[in-house]
Design brief:
- The protein has 199 residues and is of the alpha/beta class.
- The chain is built from eight helices and five strands; from the N terminus they run E-H-E-E-E-H-E-H-H-H-H-H-H.
- Helix 6 (146-153) crosses helix 7 (157-171).
- The longest helix has 16 residues, at 90-105.
- It is elongated.
């Protein structure tokens, strides 16, 4: 990737300035340039959108541009990484940001490279959500409680709660409201695949 393209989306000016400052600090000394895009700019081949709850790695245009080069059956679409700054200390935010920017440092010319990075590269070492955990999270994001989810997928309430706790732990949320906000965002933008990345 020749240019690191980032957008910081939100109304909070302090959040925007803080993220931009931390990205510049983390990216210092790298050969690639940084392009700071505005909220209304069109998508780039690979773009990192920072929201207050989530970082979105937009790969949809990359997929269309390189469709003849894709060897993987896994369709990632956009990828969502939980990014909850409110409850983290600065050092924790910097560590999380470093992991996210590692993805930008990798040489990726198509979606197969991204899929390989996630399934076989260093990222594989992180605990990712299982299909059941992801399903429970999207149902919670739609506003369903454990009893409704239990009836809907014919599983016990105890199993639903276990998946919820496991998903919450993997995503790094220790607060129900933060988990719900992230789950709501995912349920609205889900493309039918497990497209969250726990870093």
């Amino acid at each position: 990737m020749d240019v690191l393209v980032i957008r910081v989306i939100g109304e909070d000016a302090y959040f925007k300035l803080g993220i931009l400052s931390l990205v510049h600090k983390q990216w210092e000394g790298k050969a690639n340039q940084i392009c700071i895009a505005t909220d209304d700019m069109p998508y780039f081949d690979l773009c990192f959108d920072f929201h207050e709850e989530v970082v979105v790695i937009s790969t949809s245009l990359l997929t269309r541009r390189c469709s003849s080069l894709i060897f993987s059956s896994q369709r990632w679409g956009d990828i969502y990484i939980p990014f909850n700054c409110r409850r983290y200390r600065l050092i924790q935010i910097e560590k999380k940001l470093a992991k996210i920017l590692e993805i930008a440092s990798c040489k990726m010319i198509n979606e197969a490279d991204l899929s390989f990075l996630i399934t076989n590269g260093e990222i594989k070492g992180y605990q990712q959500l299982s299909q059941s955990e992801f399903l429970i999270m999207t149902f919670i994001g739609q506003g369903l409680d454990c009893h409704c989810i239990s009836k809907k997928i014919n599983r016990s309430i105890k199993t639903i709660r276990t998946h919820y706790r496991s998903a919450s732990r993997k995503l790094g949320f220790d607060n129900h409201a933060d988990f719900f906000r992230f789950a709501k965002y995912i349920s609205k933008n889900n493309q039918g695949v497990i497209n969250t990345l726990c870093l």
